[in-house]
Amino acid sequence: MNIQVLGCSGGLSDKNGSTCIQIGDYALIDAGTGLSSLTIEAMRKIRYIVLTHSHMDHIAALPLFLSNMFENVDHQVQVFAQAHTIETLKTNIFNDNIWPDFTQFPSAEAPIVEFIEIAPGDTFTLASPEQQNAQIHVFAVDHTVPTMGVSVRMQNQHFVFSSDTTEGPIFDNALAEVSKLAPVDTLMLECSFTNNKHDLAVHTKHMTPKMLKGTLTRMQQMPKNLWISHLKPSSGDALVAEVLALAKEFQNEIDVVLLQQS
Ligand SMILES: [Zn+2]
Ligand SMILES: [Zn+2]
User: Fold this and answer.
1) Of the ligands numbered here, which is closest to the C-alpha atom of 8?
2) How many angstroms does the Cα of residue 30 sit away from the middle of ligand 2?
3) What whole-number distance in Å separates Cα of residue 255 and Cα of residue 239?
4) Helices 209-218 and 236-249 sit at what angle, rounded to 10 degrees?
5) Gyration radius of the chain over CA positions
6) From ligand 1's centre to the CA of 107, what distance in Å?
7) How far is the CA of 137 from the centre of ligand 2 (A)?
8) Kind and range of the H or E run holding 113
9) 1 alpha carbon to ligand 1 midpoint, in Å?
10) Which ligand approaches the C-alpha of residue 191 most closely?
11) Helix, strand, coil percentages in the chain from 3-state DSSP, rounded to 5
12) How far apart are CA 112 and CA 101, in angstroms?
């Protein structure tokens, strides 16, 4: 399976764009500023985008990306998202004030983008003309707005992305359910704040290293690889140190990678 993390910062950083994960060369999960690391030729190959939720760090590059798709592109871009995400984007971004309503451009009959409503629990296929298809399953996680984690199965590999979530029974149950589809090879989890910001993490429904550790230890079967992402740049080196200490604790059980650079 070819998964490229184009960006996974929880904010604006000179090291790493915000969340955008590429599947093969034809699909994306989220459209944060990491998307800007693709060349225009690579952008033109994108057919599908799965949006996990409406927050800025996950959608920031979508409007500008779509305006690159007017010329020399023979396909429509299909954006899969929950009703809340689609409604939020249409009302606040693609409203002909902030940015054009691309669902009507260049014409209502053949627009460059189609928003396709999906809901937690849905399973669908992203078909590729040249590469192996990706089986996608989306599941509800526990964040401040309706948010979905994403499972990708492709070439007998299983990649699971938490998106933004806090710890607790909702996320634990989601991981247990998604593990029934196939054992998880790679789990990409978020970790936004240092342990001393526990209250902030609870309030904003994110994770600290301690919460992440709790989640891992409650898993019936640990993944082979753990990718830790979504560090808030404002948390700085203190958070990096806490995440690295956590990685050391699990080093005999899981291959842990801290994603900091695109
Ligand atoms: Zn985020
Ligand atoms: Zn968020």
Assistant:
1) 1
2) 11
3) 19
4) 20
5) 18
6) 33
7) 19
8) strand 113-117
9) 24
10) 1
11) 30, 25, 45
12) 10
Distance from Cα 49 to the centre of ligand 1, integer Å: 16
Ordered by where they begin, the domains of the chain are 3-258 (3.60.15.10)
Q: How far is the CA of 78 from the centre of ligand 1 (A)?
A: 21
Q: Which residues surround ligand 2, an ion (CB under 5 A)?
A: 55, 164
Distance 164 CA to ligand 2 centre (A): 5
CA-CA distance, 225 to 102, in Å (whole number)? 38
- In degrees and rounded to multiples of 5, residue 5 shows phi and psi of -90, 105
Instruction: Specify the pTM.
Output: 0.96
* CA of residue 66 to ligand 1 center, whole Å: 21
Which has more pLDDT, 27 or 259?
Answer: 27
Question: How far does the centroid of ligand 1 lie from the alpha carbon of residue 193, in Å?
Answer: 12
Smallest CA-to-CA distance from 158 within 145, 171, 175 is with: 175
CB 80 within 8 Å of CB 49: yes
Q: What is the pLDDT of residues 185-205, one digit of tens each?
A: 999 999 999 999 999 999 999
Q: What is the pLDDT of residues 129-170, one digit of tens each?
A: 888 899 999 999 999 999 999 999 999 999 999 999 999 999
Distance between CA atoms of residues 230 and 68, nearest Å: 26
